[in-house]
Design a protein that fits this description.
heterodimer, A: alpha/beta, globular, B: alpha/beta, 7-stranded parallel sheet, about 30% helix, elongated
């Protein structure tokens, strides 16, 4: 099986979010970048397929040279090769178009992406990629099995889960649950050394157009101080929730 | 030309989010000087939609669409949009809508903005405010294509009633190959889900063990709330992954979020930031959650929660 794992290069979940240039650009100063957590679950599942069923795993990212350490980390975790589409990621459609070219050129049977990135939270790339490549698509995926060209997946729905059957070629939007958190891998020294020798191919973009543009960012209005209620006076809490906040 | 809205229903009845997206669509239609058309799938009574600004309903009754299927539903919306010459298509932020929206966008070559929290600030260029960085910031996004797809965040816009009657028209679109077949659905029908809940009661490691969740469920029951938990709790297997709220779990945009025994890690706070009113109950007065909360009780959950349940029961009895 030929698997492509889409990797987003995102700020670590503990990052403080700030903006520069009159609130038009994300301030990367002092920010640690990581593999998007939803993609990391997908990468780990791809490793499972590689080890148990035999698969070649390629990781791909649309971004500038600054994203290469994230791709190298994915190689150190065990991916066989990496592709970087050499352009700034500007919106989901442009990223999906560039990825669709990679998918068409590489003849991948299975494409695993995270259900959304934790920076722009667009949640559009996996679905758009499936639409652009005419592949089947399952998102919010918390389980995936592949048998020949048939696949069975479980996806999270509001209030439960749904088991679906489909066939390859398939794009999935993965998330926590696809593998256990305890199965996520930290690259070891051998993996890091091997990753240096694995191919990281830089391909030039098709210069796909964007459909949306970021105008500016805003931060939420700072909150006022908490109103503390004495633990022995919970009537007051009920009263505040009813009369002041009007939520009960 | 009309604004098209996708309405979700379950067993023939509209979900509340359908009225919220209809309300949003009405606001957009007013800004653009046009009307609202809703697409419904096997709904029993479509007249309710008129109360939320829908002018016309395209009513689909088809047994093959009984179960949600993203590819088929996206194709139906595409055909409806073309029939109505719709330039704006509005969906909710439910799991199904988020599955559908990018497929619809590709079919219509439309720009898509998800997690939108306000009516457009401008319709030329078409500019919307959406959450980004998991609720740690907002992004003003302009959608630059002729056709636009918008996913509205839950509880962000609210319900806006308007006086109107929706006309109804049967619609029989052609269906593509489904591609994905539903084998089984596992859903607790008697429980309030995090996605639909107005109130969420969430607990963390301060509860000390899964055996202590009875009082959390009872509090949720009294409030008609959904239950949720922090990441360590789901990692420890005390509660299912589906209840994990936070940056790598579920985002919550409820009216009221009650956090019990959760210290308030930055990833958890990001996940609940969109909730309107936050209450925290924690023994540690230095817990970071107190800085993010509207109301707080410093106290032992094992004493505060049972007492709060009794107070709420008394309040409900009085206000019944």
């Amino acid at each position: 099986m030929n698997i492509l794992v889409c990797i987003s290069h995102v700020p670590d979940t503990t990052s403080k979010i700030n903006f520069t240039d009159d609130n038009t650009k994300f301030d990367t100063n002092g920010v640690q970048f990581v593999i998007n957590p939803n993609d990391e679950f997908g990468l780990t599942r791809a490793m499972w397929f590689k080890e148990k069923q035999g698969a070649n795993v390629t990781v791909v990212n649309v971004g500038g040279p600054e994203t290469e350490p994230t791709l190298r980390k994915a190689l150190a975790i065990g991916a066989d090769e990496a592709i970087r589409v050499n352009t700034e990621a500007k919106d989901g459609y442009q990223v999906a178009k560039e990825l669709a070219n990679v998918v068409k050129d590489g003849g991948y049977d299975l494409v695993i992406a995270g259900r959304e990135s934790i920076d722009y939270n667009g949640g559009m790339v996996p679905g758009m990629l499936a639409g652009l490549t005419d592949a089947n698509f399952v998102t919010n995926c918390i389980s995936l099995e592949v048998d020949g060209t048939n696949a069975t997946a479980i996806r999270e729905i509001d209030g439960g889960k749904e088991t679906v059957s489909t066939s390859l070629p398939l794009v999935i939007g993965g998330q926590k649950g696809l593998v256990e958190e305890s199965d996520l891998r930290i690259p070891n020294m051998r993996g890091i050394m091997m990753a240096r020798k694995k191919p990281l191919n830089v391909v030039e973009p098709s210069n796909a157009e964007t459909e949306t543009s970021s105008v500016k960012f805003e931060k939420p209005v700072p909150k006022g101080a908490v109103t503390l209620v004495d633990a022995d006076n919970l009537d007051e809490l009920v009263n505040l929730l009813h009369n002041e906040a009007k939520v009960i | 030309m009309s604004v098209l809205v996708y309405t979700e229903s379950e067993q023939g009845k509209f979900k509340k989010t359908s009225f919220e997206v209809a309300s949003y669509a009405k606001a957009v239609a007013d800004q653009m000087g046009t009307t609202v058309t809703a697409v419904t799938f096997n709904a029993n009574d479509t007249s309710e939609l008129g109360k939320y600004g829908v002018d016309k309903v395209l009513n689909i009754n088809n047994n093959d669409l009984e179960k949600f299927n993203a590819n088929s539903y996206a194709s139906v919306i595409e055909q409806a949009a073309k029939k109505e010459d719709s330039k704006v298509i509005i969906l909710s932020s439910s799991a199904d809508s988020k599955y559908l929206a990018p497929l619809v966008a590709v079919k219509l070559d439309a720009g898509y903005a998800s997690n939108v929290v306000e009516a457009p600030s401008n319709t030329s260029p078409f500019t919307v405010k959406r959450t980004a960085f998991t609720n740690k910031a907002f992004n003003m996004t302009s959608i630059d294509t002729d056709v636009k797809v918008i996913g509205v965040s839950k509880n962000a816009f609210g319900l806006k009633e308007s006086s109107g009657n929706a006309s109804s028209e049967d619609f029989s679109p052609s269906l593509p190959e489904a591609g994905v077949t539903v084998q089984s659905v596992d859903k607790a029908t008697d429980k309030v889900t995090i996605a639909d809940a107005e109130i969420v009661v969430s607990a963390g490691r301060g509860l000390k063990g899964p055996e202590n969740w009875g009082m959390i469920e009872e509090l949720a029951d009294v409030l008609g709330a959904a239950t949720a938990c922090s990441k360590p709790v789901s990692d420890l297997g005390w509660r299912p992954h589906g209840e994990h709220v936070g940056q790598t779990g579920k985002p919550v945009a409820s009216n009221l979020y009650i956090a019990i025994g959760i210290s308030g890690a930055i990833q958890h706070l990001a996940g609940i930031n969109a909730s309107k009113v936050k209450v925290v109950i924690n023994t540690d007065p230095e817990a970071p959650f107190f800085k993010a909360a509207d109301y707080g009780v410093v106290g032992d959950a094992f004493e505060v929660v049972p007492a709060l349940i009794e107070k709420l029961k008394a309040f409900k009895a009085q206000n019944a």
